[in-house]
Design brief:
heterodimer, A: 288 residues, alpha+beta, Enolase-like, domain 1, five-stranded antiparallel beta sheet, three-stranded parallel beta sheet, 12 helices, B: 791 residues, Aldehyde Oxidoreductase, domain 4, Aldehyde Oxidoreductase, domain 3, seven-stranded mixed beta sheet, 30 strands, globular
């Protein structure tokens, strides 16, 4: 196996162009596990840890450009104010050691249906900045996941960054696991309120082949809140509205039975999390 | 030396130091700092120049006939030194702890997924792995037998020549039909999933060919001499040509009682003439050792209105998997201790240990007593509920005490403070109520930082449970340990050297051996010789027995040495003293004070004694009635669990676990507390998360990604009370400590979850889908409701 260590972003893109089979690696928290257990034997590893700009973030016009190698620890320490939902999700990732190594870009690259960062990125309409020697394009996160551990990158592309709008309203993320820390999601849910657009964004994980938003639930709740003038009055919506929202989130899922949980439990869990997460977010909005 | 009585002053500093480090104290462990700093050398760190790496090819099928094995391509791989199959086993191709039914390498049939078929040695682990992948095994896949009860049907395929029954243990106590005396009859069926020991240091060892054609094996294990015997049988070598040395053990919990890589590495080393190291990775480890027997248990209790138990009828099925391992003894324990530490005049109990094509099961902390406790303690709670009585009160009303008759008919002949353990628990203050609305610390809530509740749906429940376990090997087993103790002057200082083969697996035996030597010989410096087979057997580091049995052997050897030294003193003094002892590096008389410096007495001489020490003999139980003096000692613990449950999501936060345990004498109080905390965590794990999920004989979760063990956010702070009621039959009055907490913590947690949810859960581990009411889930994961009948 070749170990390729470019020291600049342009070199990294050139390498990926020449060796499209090369597996990018940053924190290694997914890739090394697969190598150790012989799940994967790529012809080459493309180490991105020597490309310093990948580990940086900056704000452009209300959007955070999060370099692909920014770690969960950095998100928690530096971006809790701008990206509160992503920070909550980052706190649920593995252990402190894993959060020190693991990156949001790597999470996207692995494209697991259980990726902890995915639901909130869906809920806030984030975009993946994909780059190659021929140029750069932005892929909406909702179009990024194409199947179990598959994504929309071309073989010659690398993830340069994720563009995440800075929060304009409260955000929440919940993850069900059968242990109180260091656990892979049985299912997970994220919500973002966008008061300026009078919209609610959602995303869920581990309840379909890919992470998904729940568009009907978003539409229903956004309309219900608007029709009753609640964005302005900041009053609490009726229980029936919240319950229906939960049902629609669960309806958007197509979960399976596996060793971590049953399909029925996942649907149920999504309903409960959707109701609770919205209630917390709305209470924050009312207090704001 | 001229003894000059009274002219030698006792160095108080030395005396205090020895008192501080003797029994009843908690000296710093020699391995403690190294382990915390990550510097301790485990068996997986073994290394030698020119060593080869061995790997194992395992069956992917739970049950299959082997038509042929082609090793040609593997053997031709550059860098490969050997590819061995059953044809290369020079001795008997069978091993096993209780009876030898397990092939070292499979012959014509494989009986479980993961059964070793061939081994490869190469100069690099990756080459060895790839070569193993090139071995072609032609399997005729058979339909696996995966249900323990179905395995006993006459129509079931016979997995072994003797059939599928490993053992049927019967308890028949009481001589009439007791049912009419009962005011109520309580019935329940319970099941326990397959738990794994989940030790953190995987199976590992290094085999080195020796000049005499034999082999030296450095290995992480629990019983060097039992390993040696089985290796000798397979290699066809006498014991003097197979020498074992204990390497650094990263946890055991029963999972290292059976052999893993031992014979394989020795075969490869002798075949190649090179040292061969074998290390399992985490996934292979799940296939490389036995697990805790899954159990299905059906219980019927007849009770009086006041809660007095009139009779118990019970049937227990233990799934032993493909090979016997310790299923015989596990069945004996689950059966003889199957009704719990209660006095019941009429018992009719059948416990079956069964062969299937599931992963082999054998020893794990609690050893049969764990499974039964979930059932009998559930029944006690059900009785309390049915009769409207306090669950602690019902237990105390029926509690075993000193002088009681156990279900085996043996008299409990040492303290059995079962009721006191429970009453002390009940008297302990409860933790603060759940947080009121307002800011919450997610770490205190079910789900933890996963942020699933801020208090919504959270209901608190409390549960009590008590359990007990035999200490030491039972049912007539010749259970002994050997200790060699030498006392001599080294560098001007009296020094004891203690040599036993008893395995230190992390529990702290090395420290205990040192403490006993200090107390008995009055010296500060005690060297613990590496654990190896150059001394007689220490017996197994299991059954909570090492402090008792090896501790007993060390004490006996020390006393023989001491008596010889004191004999010399009296000879030199020319008079006898009845009150001499060794203390603070001096020879001391109670009446005359210090008589001599120990260093002066010893001079250049080394006083060495080797003792083989046994506890009181036990007896086999009657095969038809289960009656007999089966167990030399029982140990008891009780837990109170306070649990918060998110009843909407089925997530659990254990808020507090309180434990009261009688240890007879705490030889090392800190180690006792450590055992209670660790054992409690392992019981909690089985109650709420730890399970090897097996479907059609295949393990679905062989990794720490999906085999979950408790983290610091799952295991709560503990309140611990340690009682010391001496057992007059045991050294220092001590009682085994390690296993009881694993028995009583899980049932207490289960009952607390029931109390919080109002759901009569009957299966552990409890999964979230069992708790929430909609009752969906796959059949294999769903708990079943018990029922209550009225008599």
């Amino acid at each position: 196996m070749d170990f390729l260590q470019p020291t600049s972003w342009l070199d990294a893109l050139a390498v990926k162009s020449e060796r499209p089979e090369a597996m990018p690696i940053a924190g290694g928290t997914d890739v090394m596990v697969e190598l150790n257990f012989d799940v994967r034997r790529p012809a080459a590893l493309l180490d991105l840890t020597r490309v310093p700009e990948l580990a940086e973030w900056a704000v452009y016009d209300g959007r955070v450009r999060l370099g692909a190698a920014v770690t969960y620890t950095q998100v928690i320490a530096e971006l809790t104010d701008r990206l509160p939902g992503l920070a909550i999700a980052s706190r649920t990732v593995g252990s402190p050691q894993i959060r020190n190594r693991g990156t949001v870009g790597g999470n996207l690259g692995a494209a697991s249906p259980a990726g902890d960062s995915h639901p909130i990125l869906l809920a806030v309409d984030a975009e993946v900045e994909a780059a190659s020697v021929t140029g750069t394009r932005r892929i909406p996160v909702a179009e990024f996941f194409t199947g179990v551990k598959r994504h929309a990158l071309r073989p010659d592309e690398l993830i340069a960054a994720v563009w995440v709008p800075a929060a304009t309203g409260p955000q929440q993320f919940c993850k069900i696991g059968t242990r109180n820390a260091m656990v892979i999601a049985v299912t997970a849910f994220a919500i973002a309120l966008h008061p300026e657009r009078r919209r609610v964004g959602t995303g869920f994980g581990s309840a379909a082949a890919t992470p998904r938003p729940a568009p009907e639930a978003e539409e229903f709740l956004s309309q219900a809140l608007a029709e009753e003038g609640l964005w302005e009055s900041r009053a609490a919506p009726r229980d029936s509205v919240v319950r229906r929202f939960g049902e629609l989130v669960a309806d958007a899922a197509s979960p399976i039975d596996d060793v971590r949980g049953t399909a029925g439990y996942r649907r149920h869990g999504l309903q409960v999390m959707a109701r609770r997460a919205f209630t917390w977010a709305w209470n924050d909005y009312r207090k704001a | 030396m001229t003894p000059t009585p009274l002219s030698v002053t006792v160095d108080e500093g030395t005396r205090v130091a020895i008192k501080h480090q003797g029994i009843g104290s908690s000296p710093v462990r020699p391995d403690g700092t190294l382990k915390v700093r990550g510097e301790f050398a485990y068996a997986s760190d073994l290394w030698m120049e020119d060593m080869l790496c061995g790997v194992t090819l395992r069956s992917p099928h739970p049950y299959a006939r082997i038509r042929s094995i082609d090793i040609g391509e593997a053997l031709a791989t550059p860098g490969v030194y050997a590819v061995l199959t059953h044809e290369d086993v020079p001795g008997q191709n069978r091993y096993g702890l209780e009876h030898a039914d397990q092939p070292v390498l499979a012959e014509d049939v494989v009986r479980y997924q993961g059964e070793p078929v061939a081994v490869v040695a190469a100069d690099h682990p990756e080459i060895a792995r790839r070569a193993a992948g090139k071995i072609t095994v032609d399997y005729e896949v058979l339909h696996p037998l995966t249900d323990a009860r179905a395995a006993l049907e006459p129509s079931a395929p016979r997995l072994h020549d003797g059939g599928n029954l490993v053992r049927h243990l019967k308890i028949r106590k009481g001589d009439h039909d007791p049912q009419p005396e009962a005011d109520a009859v309580v019935v329940g069926e319970y099941s326990v999933g397959m738990q794994d020991q989940a030790f953190l240091g995987p199976e590992s060892g290094l085999a080195v060919p020796s000049g005499d054609g034999g082999v030296e094996l450095h290995v992480a294990t629990q019983w060097l001499h039992a390993d040696q015997k089985q290796i000798c049988t397979a290699l066809g070598l006498p014991p003097e040509m197979v020498r074992l040395t204990l390497s650094g053990v990263g946890g055991a919990f029963g999972g290292r009682e059976d052999l893993s890589m031992h014979i394989h590495a020795c075969l490869l080393a002798r075949h190649t003439g090179n040292p061969v190291k074998m290390v399992y990775n985490r996934e292979e480890s799940f296939f490389g050792h036995v697990h805790r027997h899954p159990a299905t248990m059906r219980y019927e209790h007849g009770v009086k209105r006041d809660g007095t138990i009139v009779y118990v009828r019970a049937e227990l099925w233990l799934d032993g998997g493909a090979y016997a391992s310790t299923t015989n003894a596990v069945t004996g324990n689950a059966g003889t201790m199957g009704i719990g530490p209660y006095v019941v005049p009429n018992v009719h109990l059948d416990c079956y240990g069964v062969y299937t094509n599931n992963p082999p099961c054998g020893a794990m902390r609690g050893f049969g007593a764990v499974q039964a406790a979930f059932a009998y303690e559930s029944q006690l709670d059900k009785i309390a509920d049915e009769l409207g009585l306090d669950p602690v009160e019902v237990r105390c009303r029926n509690a075993m005490e000193q002088g009681s008759e156990a279900p085996t008919g043996q008299t409990v002949d040492s303290p059995a403070p079962v009721a006191e353990l429970l009453r002390r628990l009940q008297a302990m203050p409860l933790p603060p109520e759940p947080a009121t609305p307002g800011p919450v610390d997610l770490r205190d809530l079910p789900g933890g930082v996963s942020n699933t509740t801020h208090g919504e749906g959270v209901v608190r429940g409390i549960g009590y449970a008590v359990g007990y376990k035999n200490v030491g090997f039972s049912e007539g087993f010749d259970d002994y340990s050997t200790a060699r103790v030498r006392l001599e002057v080294v560098g001007g200082e009296p020094t004891a050297t203690v040599h036993t083969a008893a395995a230190e697996v992390g529990q702290g035996l090395i420290t205990v051996e040192q403490q006993i030597c200090r107390t008995e010989l009055g010296v500060e410096r005690v060297v613990v010789h590496p654990k190896d087979t150059r001394v007689g057997s220490g017996g197994s580091t299991s059954a909570s027995r090492q402090t008792y049995v090896t501790g007993g052997a060390v004490r006996a050897a020390c006393r023989k040495v001491r008596d010889r030294v004191l004999g010399v003193v009296q000879q030199r003094l020319g008079r006898t003293h009845a009150d001499l002892r060794l203390d603070g590096g001096k020879v001391v008389s109670d009446a005359y004070g210090v008589l001599a410096d120990l260093a002066d007495v010893l001079r250049g001489e080394a006083f060495e004694e080797t003792v083989e020490w046994r506890h009181r003999p036990t007896q086999p139980v009657d095969p038809e009635t289960g009656q007999g003096f089966a167990h030399v000692q029982y140990a008891y613990s009780a837990h109170r669990a306070v649990v918060d449950v998110d009843v909407d999501l089925g997530l659990i936060k254990v808020v507090e676990l309180a434990c009261v345990q009688d240890v007879g004498k705490a030889i090392n109080p800190q180690a006792v507390t450590g055992q209670i905390e660790g054992g409690t965590a392992q019981g909690l794990g089985l109650a709420v998360m730890e399970e090897i999920v097996v479907e059609n004989g295949k393990i679905m979760n062989p990794s720490f990604t999906d085999y979950l063990i408790p983290t610091i956010l799952d295991m709560p702070p503990m309140r611990i009370e340690v009682l010391e009621y001496p057992d007059p039959h045991a050294p220092y009055g001590l009682r085994g400590v390690g296993e009881p907490p694993t028995i009583s913590s899980g049932p207490a947690v289960l009952q607390a979850i029931r109390a919080a949810t109002g759901r009569w859960l009957t299966r552990v581990p409890v999964r979230p889908e069992h708790i929430i009411e909609t009752g969906f889930g796959t059949a294999s994961h769903r708990g079943q409701e018990g029922r209550v009948e009225h008599g």
